[in-house]
Structure prediction request, 154 residues.
Amino acid sequence: MLRTRLFVFPLLLLVTATAVAEDRPFKGRVSATWDNIFLALVAPPATFQGGGPVTHMGNTTQTGNLFLAAPIAPGIYPGHGSVTITAAYGDRLTFDYVGTLNANNGEGIGTFVFTGGTGRFAKAKGRGIFYALIDLSRPTLQHMTVDLDGKIDY
Prediction:
């Protein structure tokens, strides 16, 4: 009986620890302003600042950058960048993203992958998709809204 308990107890701990590590829904809606998104093509990177509510973090501030490449179709630019999300209590979450910017209508779509962070997000993993709408009618200080939808494990 003692041998069985010595075997079952560590096994139970392993199963419990494994069950704690799980993908959780990750969603956010962010409003931000680009310094000049057109810099992402001619003198990268372009940068943005903003914030908004994000699951697991509450209200946040966010910063990010963008590098664009030559168009793959008229007005369609592939791009990539990184984002840092900071919770009101100070923990940070980072992700890299890839996607396309449609300069004809200001839509950006793509995927993101979490790369870690600080505090409880230090070992964050997961991925998701994003949809951005950018006001390209302005030469600078372009407003953007972004919807994030994915899964996170931390």
